[in-house]
Sequence to fold (661 residues):
Amino acid sequence: MSSVVHLIEEGREQREIRSLPSSHLQPQNAPYVHRVGVPRKQNLFKELGATVKETFFPDDPLRPFKDQPRSKKLLLGIQAVFPILEWGRSYNFAKFRGDLIAGLTIASLCIPQDISYAKLANMDPQFGLYASFVPPLIYACMGSSRDMVIGPVSVVSLLLGTLLQREIDPIKNKEEYRRLAFTATFFAGITEVTLGLFRLGFLVDFLSHAAVVGFMGGAAIAIALRQLKGFLGIQNFTKENGIVHVMHSVCQAAHHGWNWQTIVIGVSFLAFLLFAKYIGKKNKKLFWVPAIAPLISVILSTFFVYITRADKHGVRIVKHIEKGINPSSAKEIYFSGNYLLKGFKIGVVAGMIALTEAIAIGRTFASMKDYQVDGNKEMVALGTMNVVGSLTSCYVTTGSFSRSAVNYMAGCKTAVSNMIMSLVVLLTLLFITPLFKYTPNAILAAIIISAVIGLIDLEAVFLIWKIDKLDFVACMGAFFGVVFISVEIGLLIAVSISFAKILLQVTRPRTAILGKVPRTNVYRNVLQYPEATKVPGVLIVRVDSAIYFSNSNYIKERILRWLTDEEEKGIASYQPKIQFLIVEMSPVTDIDTSGIHAFEELYRSLQKREIQLVLANPGPVVIDKLLVSNFANLIGEDRIFLTVADAVASCSPKLAEEEQV
Fold:
């Protein structure tokens, strides 16, 4: 009866999955050796469809639409584009109270920051306020993050200003400069929407975390250095961002270009802002202190300049901020001519950086509150708001980490806090802008310096150094590129080093020699487990990567070098000659024709040395390709095993008998 049951079970397994034949070389007294399963052949179109789905739709965005009536599918489709229609149905007064407090708090922070950041982009102050009115409203309707606050940010403003002024002088040709800024913003939005619609968000991940940390830190230094113009009251200042050019310009103006009244204002209020930040960090309940400190600084410094008429003594002031809501800029965008391509290039770069920053911020706060942020939906929302923003006199906007942190600490519940902030900015544009006439430039410089200090993350740098030295090189490369040369060169270095790291890992994958961990049938890296013992006459090598054309030759040569080294050690210590080379293939997720060709060459090289090639645990994709290419027949299907232990048992029966005992 038991034999009948065994036959039925065996037949069922054979129907479900094919297996390679049992080894005819296996001794009768050896334990039963399981064979590697061979997956069923899939339809070509189904296989391609599954690959495309996993590449571009890993989150299965159509899952909510399954088995739903047509009317429900339409509603779900609208809610997917406008999430406000979904969470808005459960909105109540308790949530509104939290959003109201948060919205008013971030508004007090954003207004002085917007005016300051507009200067970084070489735009008039009102354009910074415009960018915190329309885009946040669009994002509140389309975005999936509850905590992220939208508006101008320092890094993107500096990047945009740097790239734009290389094409057009912002002082001599102010109108053309502004038009190119709107054109770049339009194409930044188009870039973001395109990445979201075509599910290409994974491209943003090619800029590594280490490179971003270095880039942000370098940008913070570059931004702070640029503020020395307003902080010291210097009139003639370099347009370059490199530290050498900036410090040369500062030193040149030291004898006659510095204004002591401006320095007193700047130093006093910078100290106040930094002290407010310190209070907020020491006591989380006082988060509102650093949030309102910039607005208090603007009010006090403006009042001080007005009553003392310090502007008559060389203190430079804002002078004029245009009153009223955003004018239309649809006709100002370059859709033809020489500036079209320039605007497109600048927009793509600015859009990618803005996207990287926003996605990182959204994910950070989503993990803190345990909800999901859809990266591709975020791209569409961010892109749409920038496209609409370019039509309403806004330059590139994205998520602000400092404001989002304040928003989170203030107890925001939904994106309505963005709407409240926009409403406050609207009221400012309509009624309050004339009051900023006597605001000194020094206070705007102090606000920017205090804000960008937070972008320098020394803890992250030290952690990167401890974890991965190559990541640290990428971090420092991006940092020094921005500080000593320019923002765009620093960005280029960051991207280049990130790609170089990927190429290095792909072309030079890790390999390891395995040994048997005592009192187990487990084989592990002998460097990680020094107590693991090597099997006499057998060399076990693990390949820790997929095998492609880019690394196949290296893997073959590295395995042969391992073999040569072990043979030399064996001769020196009078060990048995190596007769079997077992390649552990569990980490090998795929192999291409170049990889199979490299294994064929490896097999021929081993034959000349009278060494047999054995494979252990190739995955379904790998074993299928080995069979189709006839490589499995070349080495013998009885030389492909499910585990390293099975392979060793077949190659070294004496050891297998000892293990059984």
